[in-house]
Structures are given as structure tokens and as C-alpha cells.
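C-alpha cells please, single chain.
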Amino acid sequence: MTNFREKYGAWALITGASSGIGAEFARQLAAKKLDLILVARRKNRLVKLAKELRAQHGIEIKTVPLDLAKPGFLKTLLRQVATSNVGLLVNNAGFGIAGSFTDQPLEDELRMLDVNCRAALILAHEFANRMVQHRRGGIIMVSSVAAFQGVPFMSHYAATKAYDLILGEGLYHELKRFGVDVLTLCPGATATEFAQVAGGKDFPQAMAVAPVVAEALDALGKKSHVVTGAKNKLSVFATRLLPRRLTSYAAMQVMRRLGRSGRA
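Here you go.
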């Protein structure tokens, strides 16, 4: 079993840590005795989670209420973590928008681009440079099974997650020579607040977050990416065998059944 504190250092930084997959990364890394920097917009949730994990594991935790869509978020973040040597970055923050592409305000789509792609790039670049200097570290990019094909009625979301996947896969090979592990996590439907934020019905048979995060942490340093869940693995494998037009059409039918197709 990997000793995370010994391999990556004392501090892990997790974005989107106030709920769902991000909060579960915090819980499982706390159990591995890493000190945590928790970043999200919702201060009250961060404070509550930090209090819980300090009591359970006796670790040091910093909470940073921050909107990653803001242009100058990095300067604010670095001021608050200046004394912490971050050895593990979990680029988890992100959200989706569902419905007809032309129905969505451009402002909302640009905000999603900023959070899902721009912020992930900025953080990966900043902390990868530090990790390369120390010749050790780890980066987890949270993508999605949506990254493997076009997804009508979530077209832009799928595109942002494809960006995260391709960036992570490239960095896996590029940074390995410096002792930096990179993993891209591609979960399918997971029991989080994603569906409520995106709009539409909850995903049926969504996976619990704990096994999703556990599989990611187990794969870090061993694989370039991991798709969680047997059905999701099969679905992604099918995208390699079937014509892309057909996989996107199948995705469209799923989105319609979930009530995400917007206007007729």
C-alpha cells in the first residue's frame, strides 16, 4: 500500500472540495494522514468538513473559499498557501450544463470553460513546476466518461472534459521522468450534486463516491487514466469499436431519456 505522505509530501490541495467527489477525496486523503488545502466557493461547507476531518484524523487543514472562474484566483490562492508545500493536486472543481446548446446563455458556458478547463490548466501548470523542482508529486485531473464521445445536449460539457482527459494523458508521460505521477479520473454517473446543478433528472444507478475515489487513489502512479465502474468501462470500450457518429447518437438518446434535451 502506498504511503501517500511519504511519497507526495505533507500537503494535498483539492478543488471543488465542498461536496461530492472533492469532499470524498478530502476524507480519503485525510485518512492517509495528508494535511489538506480545501478550495471551493461555499465557505460554510468547507469549514464544516475541515472541522470533521481535524477531529477524526488530527491533521492540519486550510480552507480557501474561492471562485475559480475569477480571473485572478491564483494570486489569492497562492497568498493563502504560501507556507504549504503542495505535493498532491486534485483538480476536481467543475460543473455541467444540460439542455439545448442554443438555449444556454454564453456567460454560463464561458464560466464552465473557466472552471473546467482554464482553472485546471493554471493549477496544473503552477504546481507541476514546483513538483518538477522537487522531483516528486502527484496530479489528479477529474474528467468524465463524457470525454470519450460527443454528448448532444451536454456538448460543451463533454468538450471541456475531453480537454481535461487529453491534458492529463499527455502530462502523465511528460512528467513521469521527474517523479511526478499524473492520473485522469473518468467517472460516470456518480451520487453527487452534479445532476441538480446541470439540470434534469438524477442519474439512475449512480455510483457511490467512495469507490470512485478509492479506485483513483489506488491507480495513481500506476495508470494514465481510470474509468470507474464496470458498465462505464464497457461503455468507453465500445466507443473504440463503434463509429463516432453512432456513439454520439446513443449518448443523445440517453440524454433525452434523462430529460436534458431542452426545447423541441
